[in-house]
Amino acid sequence: MTDTELAAALAATAGRIALEIQRSGLLSGKPMGDAADKAVNQFLVHAIRQARPDDGLLSEESKDTEERLGKERVWIIDPIDGTREYSEARSDWAIHVALAVGGEPALGAVGLPGIDLVLRSDRPKPLAAAEERPRLVVSRTRPAKEAVEVAERIGGELVAMGSAGAKAMAVVRGEAEIYLHTGGQHQWDNCAPVAVALAHGLHASRVDGSPLVYNEADSWMPDLLICRPEWAGRVLAEVAALSA
């Protein structure tokens, strides 16, 4: 099994585990989200350590150690990306399984269990036709100020959505043109989405245009831009103008 096949299989199985917990009726709200985070994390960590014992691992739900820093290959996972949306039984949550090699997002899979879909970096599909008026996906609870201002400058439409993975995959799937985030994330929030987005021919970078680097000692990533390539230059220029 290739690394990407493994990532996709893990994302799919993890999604089924999360849905079983959700549909059992035994828990609801935050306790259900916490239980799913724990169960999915246990499954993913065990499966990766069994299948790729020599690789490093970084997970939102496991204590981080310095061991991964000496590894060339590091799996970066988010068991439930969008726990709030999961807890509310919405569909805009995701499961992230990615492999960073030499700090680059080499491959990944993003599961969208709520719509029974796994997007993967080894099966890219042609981008759908873009809307003339660009759509920017933003947080449904706290849209980034810069994204709102850029949307106004380029005549864009804001589309509120849940998790980071769901927003990034909306661009991959042709439901939006731009995902601009300046509120800060962690490496597990975007490594798998970035790997999938890049494989599908999208632009992905920091908002100053610099590359996204993974397996850093500090898991914090201040900002992110995933968009159709034809919008990258314009959006980066508008963000630079806002900070000038």
TrEMBL record:
InterPro entries: CysQ/Inositol_MonoPase (IPR050725), Inositol_monoP_metal-BS (IPR020583), Inositol_monophosphatase-like (IPR000760). Transmembrane segments: none annotated. It catalyses: adenosine 3',5'-bisphosphate + H2O = AMP + phosphate. Keywords: Magnesium, Metal-binding. PANTHER family: 3'(2'),5'-BISPHOSPHATE NUCLEOTIDASE 1. The lineage of its organism: Bacteria, Pseudomonadati, Pseudomonadota, Alphaproteobacteria, Sphingomonadales. SUPFAM superfamilies: Carbohydrate phosphatase. It holds the Pfam family Inositol_P. The keyword Lipid metabolism does not apply. It comes from the Bacteria. It comes from Parerythrobacter lacustris. Coiled coil: none annotated. This is 3'(2'),5-bisphosphonucleoside 3'(2')-phosphohydrolase.
